[in-house]
Each structure stands twice: as structure tokens, then as C-alpha cells.
Amino acid sequence: MAKRALVSVSDKTGLIEFVKKLVDAGIEIISTGGTKKAIEAAGLPVQSVSDVTGFPEILDGRVKTLHPAIHGGLLAVRDKKNHMDAIAEHGIQPIDFVIVNLYPFKETISKPGVAYDEAVENIDIGGPSMLRSAAKNHKSVTVVCDPADYDLVAESLDENADVPFELKQKLAAKVFRHTAAYDALIADYFTKQTGEVFPEKLTITYEKKQGLRYGENPHQMAAFYSEPIENEATIAAAKQLHGKELSYNNIRDADAALGIVKEFKEPAAVAVKHMNPCGIGTGANVNEAYDKAYEADPVSIFGGIVALNREVDAELAEKLHSIFLEIVIAPSYSDEAIAILEKKKKNLRLLQVKMTDDAQDFVQYTSVRGGMLVQDLDTKGYEDIEDNLKVVTERKPTEEEMESLKFAWTIVKHVKSNAIALVNHGRMVGMGGGQTNRVGAAKIALEEAGEKAKGAVLSSDAYFPMNDTVEEAAKAGITAIIQPGGSIRDQESIDMANKYNIAMVMTGMRHFKH
Ligand SMILES: NC(=O)c1ncn([C@@H]2O[C@H](COP(=O)(O)O)[C@@H](O)[C@H]2O)c1NC=O
What we know:
Belongs to the PurH family. With 514 residues, the chain is of the alpha/beta class.
């Protein structure tokens, strides 16, 4: 008996070429409305699903293949006599191939302002049912859900119009990934409509963007997955204009740099090493901002990642190529700038990223052994604490100090805890991060700043458990401090600040970053 293929596709890419190969292999084609029309128009033989089911397509296509004549033909186990007897008794013939791709739900909900009813109508029911039936019975049924696999399947057909089991198994696994991801998007869409957060099951889905040469270290395997619906203002959506392929560490560092530079409305430049900022500067233009970021720590920036929130011009490109950098990130580059960087730096990765604000519903996933932690991204900034700032010392910060405190508070949340940042005249002059005690972080920051600590301000991501950090800061010449407050020993820190005429403000908000 001739093999039969059921073909029902929304995306008709490569369809005709593939169906032609199936027909040439002696396979009979059964198809639904629009797909059948396309096959007929190509002059290929095709039978209507309605003729197989003896039932018309109804409910605007909501029911067309949901029928025992289809699912019986897909699910019958070929070497079980009772199965074959049962389908024979009901006049059902086996179906050996399923070529189905689904209603474009993702594309539909990606359209801005799409109507709810349109989204719902684009939930495919019959398609996933056929895919799942065929995939369950993959020992006998070859199931193709992706036009990218058409050639492979056509090339693998043997003289019996069959393909090897290993291929059928791979295609079945792909189907279950495909339908699971499809359902995950639908679940996410409805969950968002209901406003539910942290539901009882986490069904997120990601799409492979690229394989990576290795992970954090060469002995770790890794790949980069991106959200199915692209957010333009992310590293996942960045356009690479030049340079070597991004590595695992590059992607994380670039993400960190982008997160910091997007904090600033004014021209800003950020240099990142190992996920921590080693230089941050703002200025009247991005050139000036870069100079400040560079001067903050001309040693650490070497081999780092630089993110800028304005176009890179030729002048800046000249500066950028004069040191070794892994990546430059910017919203745009002038043609001249690109030409300079491409010519002078063969490997330097140039990324173009939109610098719009982070979406408020950004969620952060952190895996732990045996589980996943989910939280809102820490998007709170200076604007969120501005109205509740409390000056706790005898001396109030001057206007200039206040500007620096704002800058210092904005950046400290991007430094690994325990975090201390020092700021002077629109630039970070010292940073201590990832330390197991706060005064240790402060000592590192102050030592790095050296003379530049004189007249600078200090920010701390969490409260001072003791007054030692204030004392160290005072000795180094710090004039103002911003910190959350909330320690039972706050008064000791305040007293120490008063002793050295330091102005101190409390934000009431903590910015741990582990
Ligand atoms: N309802 C059904 O019985 C059904 N059977 C197949 N489909 C889908 O209909 C689409 C193809 O439709 P057409 O051949 O009419 O262009 C495919 O994406 C297929 O997955 C169905 N539609 C949605 O549920």
C-alpha cells in the first residue's frame, strides 16, 4: 500500500519542492484548505482531508483534522494486531508522514497592540494535536514541524519511502520541544493578561541564538538562548557590526556594561571588567565621558568592555583603538568610526544596541542546584529614593556633592556586594566590590582612588554595620556619603561623620547584588 503524508502548514516556505519529492517517492498527499490549494496550484496530486474524514472543515477552520480518521491513522501501532484490526474495522488507513507547522502565535502577539481575539484565533489546536500524535507514534510516523528539515527528510527517503528510526526519533523530540515552546508562549500570554505573577508552574521558553565555543572556562560547554520575542534594547538583540564571535564571558560583561550605561540620560561611558564597572564617566559629550571613564582606572580598562550611550565618532574611535578592548557597545557608529575601528582592530567586537529604557517587567532568573530563583530586575534608581532622602548629619551636602551622591548611588547597585563606589566630578574614581566585609570594600576603593579620593563622595550598597567605613573615608578625604541606613548602630556612623564634618544622606533602599 502507498505511504500517505498529511500536509497542513501555515508557513508555506519550501512546501512545493518538498511535496514534489514526496510525490516522486510514491507518497500520497492529504491536505487541508489553504495548503491543498497551494499544492493543487503547483499541479501536484492531493486529496482533501474532508474526503478522508467524510466531514467538512467547520468553525472557520477550528475543526478540520480533529477526527478519528486522522488520529487513528496516526496513532495505530503498526505491529499490534488489535490496533490494525480496529482501524480497518472503521475504514481508517495509516498515515505515515505528518508535515505540519502551526498558526503564527508568536508573530501575532509580537505585533504592537494586537487584539486579544486575534491572538486567541492564532492558537493552533489541530496542528499540535497531529504533531503530538505523530511524534508519540514516531516508530512508524515521520513528523516534520520545521521547513528547515524538509531537505534532510527528502534526502533520507529509502526505496520503501521510509526514513531511518534515528531520524524519526530526532524529529519527534523536536516536535515535543516545539509544541512545549508554543504552549509556553500561549501560557505566558494568558498569564500576563490575568496579571498573575510567579504562577505555580514556570513555563518559560528560549530560542537558541548561537552555540558558544565554551562557557565561563574552556572546559565548560555553553550556548546562548534568547527570549522568543526580541527586546531591541538588550545584548540578545545586539547587532554585531565587526569582530570575533562573542564568548560566554563577553555576553555577560556586555550585559552588565549595557545595564550601567542605560542608567544615564546624559552622555556616559562605562568600562566593565568581570561584570564590575572599573570606569564610569559622564560629560557634555560622549568623548569627554569616555576620557573620564578611562582615567578612572587606566589599568583595569585593559581588555575590558566599553559601553557608550551616544554615537561613536571618528575622534572617539581613535581613542578606542589605542588600547586593547574586547567589545565596544554603542547605539550607533559614524561611518568613519567604523572604518577606523575595523581597520585598526581586526578582532574588536563592535555591538550596536538600542539604548531605550529597560522594560519594567524584566525578570531575572538565577539557577541554583535543583532550582531557579526568580525576581524582578533591580530597576530602582535615584528617582525612586529622591523624595525620601534623609540628611542625618549636622552638615547638609552642597549642591555639587548632591550631584556626585546621585551619580554614586546610581552606579553602586551595579557593583557586586559588598560594594563601595567613589565619585568625583562626574566620574567614578574608585570602586571596591565583591568583598566579604564593607570596610574591606571601602579600603580597596579608597586605595585605588588615592589622591582622587580627596573631595570625592562615597556610596555604599547597604548600611554600615559599624563606623569604621566612615572613619576610613574621612581619613582619605571623602566629604559626603550616601547609604541606605537601617543598622542598629547607625548613630555611631552618624557621630563619626559629624566628627569629620562629612555630610551623610540615607536612602532607605538597599541595592545588594550577589
Ligand atoms: N483545527 C484543526 O483541525 C486544524 N488542523 C490543522 N490546523 C492548522 O491549519 C494550518 C493550515 O491551514 P490551511 O491548510 O488551511 O492553510 C496549519 O497551521 C495547521 O496546524 C488546524 N487549525 C487549528 O487548530
